[in-house]
Amino acid sequence: MKTRANFPLQAFNSLNVPAVTAEIFLPSTVKELSEITTDKALRSYILGEGTNTLFCQAKAPTIIKPRLMGIEVTENDEYFQVSAACGENWHNLVLFCISHAIYGLENLALIPGSVGAAPVQNIGAYGIEVSDFIERVTWYDFAEKKLVDFSNAACQFGYRNSIFKQALNGKGIITHVHFLLPKAWQPVDSYQGLNTIISPVTPQAIMAKVIQLRQTKLPDPKLLPNAGSFFKNPLVTEDFFHALQQQYPKIPYYRQQSGEIKLAAGWLIEQAGLKGFRDGGVGVHENQALVIINYDSKHGQDIVALSVYIQEKIMAKFNLHLIPEVRFIGADGELSHTNRGCQ
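The structure assignment produced for this chain is given below.
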């Protein structure tokens, strides 16, 4: 297995923040995963493509960056079963499925990151979440040194959440994700932006529109370092929403099956006057207020400070607490978003 000591991570996170890990493991098989001592594995951070990671300090913990690759497809009369290894690029998996006439993931096109990270965050966009199509997840348990299969229900999926982000965080690593995609495809095209697609609505047309919308709204991290949507869209009660709507009649909202109302965090940030706001080397993107840009800062704590400032402004104006989607990583591992001790 490939390992490196004193390894720089600036090129391995899309916010382009300098950080150094004392040791990085690059396993390409489950056997190589098992070679990492339990003690080191349990004190490590699992790094996919670094598109949802903020290194808050100059030093990073031990890093495990899995490189397991491969996509396998089986089928029956009703479903395609697609199994993808954790190291595969997410968008490449979507392209693979479309090119093989396997449909359902097209709304999730161009989401940055790896396949293994997708269930952790339960990535979602344009009306669907990845959990809608996950049959099971294969996970390697660091302590037991064995593979465990989690059914969809056992994954405890929620809005940008899962058991892998909560109870099992830091205790193992997703090695494979197994998808169940129905052959009887039904378009999900009611979301704003997709409802303008001219008939016939095809998976290819939806994917093309999603790509166009994402490229229009979200800056390329290779040109402007960012981690995509920095904050989750807040979920509020019906009563809270109605009170807010009285003050802001044009507030965008999305009703959830749970009865809660999802609000657009980007809209809230824009209404607080922070769209295009810049503080030194970091700032809020001028076209999409949900995106924080690292223009030229060399310190992760600058981004933390800006995110806290945004939270304070939103709380003061709307009495709402924005929760970051991005994971904050300190020298000893993942930090709570309420922990501001990133200096």
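Interim note for the steering committee: The chain is about 20% helix and 25% strand. Helices lie at 30-34, 38-42, 90-99, 118-121, 203-217, 238-247, 265-271, 300-318.
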